[in-house]
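ok so heres the complex, two chains, lmk if somethin looks off
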Amino acid sequence: MAIRIYNSLSRKKEEFVPLHGNRVSMFVCGLTPQDQTHMGHAKTYVAFDVVARFLRHKGYHTFYLQNVTDIEDRIIQKMKSTGRAWNEIVSGYFAEYLEVMEKLHCTSVDVYAFATDYMDEIIEQIQGLIRKGHAYVAEDRSVYFDTTTFAGWGRLSGQKVEELRPGARVEVEERKRHPADFVLWRAQKPGEPAWDSPWGKGRPGWHIEDTAITIRHFGPQYDLHGGATELLFPHHEAEIAQAESYTGTSPFVKYWMHGGMVMVRGEEMHKSLGNFWPVTAALQRYEPEVIRFFLINVQYRGPIDFSPELLDEAKRAYDRLRETVRTVEAERRRAPESGPGDRDLKVASAKVLTDFDAAMSDDFNTREALAVLFDYARVVNKAIEVGAGRTALEETARVFQTIARVLGLFEDRSEGSTLVNGLLDLLVSLREDARKRKDFAASDRIRDALAALGVTLEDTRDGVRWKRK
RNA sequence: GCCGGGGUGACAGAGCGGCUAAUGUGACCGACUGCAGAUCGGUUUCCUGGGGGUUCGACUCCCUCCCCCGGCACCA
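and the predicted structre for the whole thing:
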C-alpha cells in the first residue's frame, strides 16, 4: 500500500513518492545539547524513529540525518552560568541524549551532524546568499537574511508578513532592516566562542546549519523533513528561504512533517513552569518500552498529555501485548504440531500485517496500528486457550517480530543471572510441592515474598510461570 | 489580531458520507483457579462542543459561534 503523509506544506495528506526511486533522504531537526533530554525530545525522536523504521520496512532505502546544534545562544548562557566550556556542555548532554535514545530504541539515525563540523559549508552558503543579494552585513559584522528578497516567505506557515506581530515573544534586534530578517552569522561578543569568517569572528545563526548540513549530504532537494510543530515558524520557514535562495531549486523539501507537543496537565512542558520531565526521571519510574509505547499510542501529529497516571495506564495496556508475545514464545516451543485453534489463528495472522500496513501507511498512524495489534492479541490468546499448534504459533511469532521491528517494541528481555534464575526455579518447585500437599499457607508465603521482591508467579494450566516487574 | 492543530463514552484515543462509532485503561458480572494472576466471554443506559446548511442520509462536507493547545521572528 502506498504511504500517505500529511504534508505541512500543502496541509493535506499526499501520497509519498520519493524524489529518486526508492531512495529516501530524511532529515529531522535535532536538539541543542544544553540541558537534560526531556519527554518532548523523546516524543519527537521516537515518532521519527518509527517513520524511518516503517520506510525501511516498506523497502525504501532510507538515509536518516539529524543535526546537533552544538553552538547556540543557550549554550553560551549555560557557559556563563556554569563556567564550563561550550564543548564540554555539549558533549555531556549529548552523551546523555544518546543514552536515552538507545534505551528508547531510537536506533534509526544514520548520521548525527554537528553544526560546527560544517563551518565551511555554512560560510560558503552565507557568502552565496550575500552574492545573490539575499543577505546583508550589519554594522556589527553580523549577517542577516533579507526576507523581503524571498517571495516564498510565509508559504510553509501560511503567514503573511504584515499579519505577524514583531516582538510577540522575542525582542526584535534593532540591527535588522526588517523584523522578519534573521541572523545567518552572529558577530562575536567578548568571551564567546567564535570561528573565523570573511566578516570577522563569530558563529552561525540557528537556521543556517540545517541547510548547510542537508545540502552537503542530500544536495539542493530532499524528501522528508521532520520536527516538532513549534519549529514550523520561523525555523523551517527560514530553512526554505535560505536554501531556495541559495540553490535556486524549489521545493527544497518535498514533504514537511510536524509532530505534536508533550503537554503536562494542558500546559506546555517547560522548565520555568516547574513541570519539566527529563527522560531520566521518567526512566526511574517506568521501563523504556513503556515510555516508548506511551509515546506512540497517539498519532504523531497530536499532542500528548504527560502524567504519571497516563503512564501507569500505558504500562497496563503494554503489559497486555507483551504478555501475549511472551505466551506465544513459551507455547511455540512445546505445542503439538497442530491444534483446534489453528484455523482462526491462521486467518488472523494472514490479515494482521495487511491491516498493520494500512494503518501505518495512513500517515504513520501508530495508534491505529496498535489497535490492530490488540485485536490480533485477543485472537492469539483465544487460540492458545483452545489449543494452538506449533506451525501456527511460529507464524504468529514471526508476525510479532515483524511488527516489533517497525514499532521498536518487545525488544527488552529481563534476564537475570544463572544464580537468580536457579534460585527462582527452586522456590517455584518448592511451592509446587506445597501446593500438591494443599499446604496453601506455605505456597502463598513463597508467592507473596517473591511478589514483594518484584517477581510475579502465575499458575497456568501448563505449570508455573514467573516474571519480573 | 493573524496562522496552524484540536473538541468523540468514567478516562485515554482512532475512524469514516450509510455498516454494532475502533482499541486500550478503569468498573461490574461470569468462566478458569485452592486463592490470586494471566486469559477468555459479557456488561458499562446509542459518547461525536453549540447553532445553521448541503444530502435520501452528517461524527465525517460547508458556514458560523464558543472553548482548548501551539506559533507569531534564537523551543523537540
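quick notes: The first strand of chain A starts at residue 4 and ends at 7. thats all i got rn
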